[in-house]
Amino acid sequence: MKHNPIIVALDFNSAEQALSLVDRLSPSNCRLKVGKELFSACGPSLVRQLVDRNFDVFLDLKYHDIPNTVSRALRVVADLGVWMVNIHASGGMAMMSQARETLDSLGGVRPLLVGVTVLTSLGREDLQQLGTDIEPAEQVRRLAQLCAQAGLDGVVCSAAEARQLRSELPAEFCLVTPGIRRPQDASGDQKRVFGPVEAIENGSDYLVVGRPITQAESPPEALQEFNSALAGFAESIG
């Protein structure tokens, strides 16, 4: 494969827990995701530590606010040296377009900017409660098209929607997929889950994996299982 697609989600509430795991991982084997829990506990300093260790860091804060507020936040994020950051596509075209323009204006290497479509914890009934009476896949499709029009680099989506999106969107438009599980892993609070090979087959570029690795008896071995499965698939298709 051209790149390692595994992004390990550091779903912890302390720097000690996060770094204890990171000490056992290598930047050559995975990327890292810092979400709201860890960022709220440790702030930018931990992100800088991870970047200094040469890890690609996906800062998963899902910004969703008025365009000016999101743009100002992204200026700070870019200064941290993160590899990827996300915003909610439901924030609308103006918010997304200004976010992209802000990052482009900074010059140099900027973070990838991806849009959150429909959370993988949401199903049809959940969307109905929110006033959107369509299947999650159709809502994802609509929001992904909006993200592409706004100039974003990709979207966060389930592997369930990846195949259709890959056929409709530019090849360079990246698809980031959470909810990745092996057969032996519990689905937890995710409702649209897939295995790593299945997700890649469907067109996903990056796979976010949390508990199956971070809560494994041996996280490095669990990560190796995911990487081996993907390497085997890559070999099988030449």
Keywords:
single chain; 238 residues; alpha/beta; TIM Barrel; eight-stranded parallel barrel; 46% helix
Structure description:
The protein is α/β, with parallel strands linked by helices and 238 residues long. The protein has a single domain, classed as Alpha-Beta Barrel (TIM Barrel), CATH 3.20.20.70. It has eleven helices and eight strands.
Element-level helix/strand string: EHEHHEHEHEHHEHEHEHH
The CATH topology comes to: TIM Barrel
| Domains (count) | 1
- Could you tell me the number of beta strands? 8
Distance between the termini: 10 Å
What secondary-structure arrangement, pairings included, does this model have?
Elements: E1 6-9, H1 15-22, E2 31-34, H2 36-42, H3 44-52, E3 57-63, H4 67-79, E4 84-88, H5 93-105, E5 112-116, H6 124-129, H7 136-149, E6 154-156, H8 159-168, E7 174-177, H9 196-202, E8 206-209, H10 211-214, H11 219-236
Parallel strand pairs: 1-2, 1-8, 2-3, 3-4, 4-5, 5-6, 6-7, 7-8
Helix pairs in contact: 4-5, 7-8, 8-9
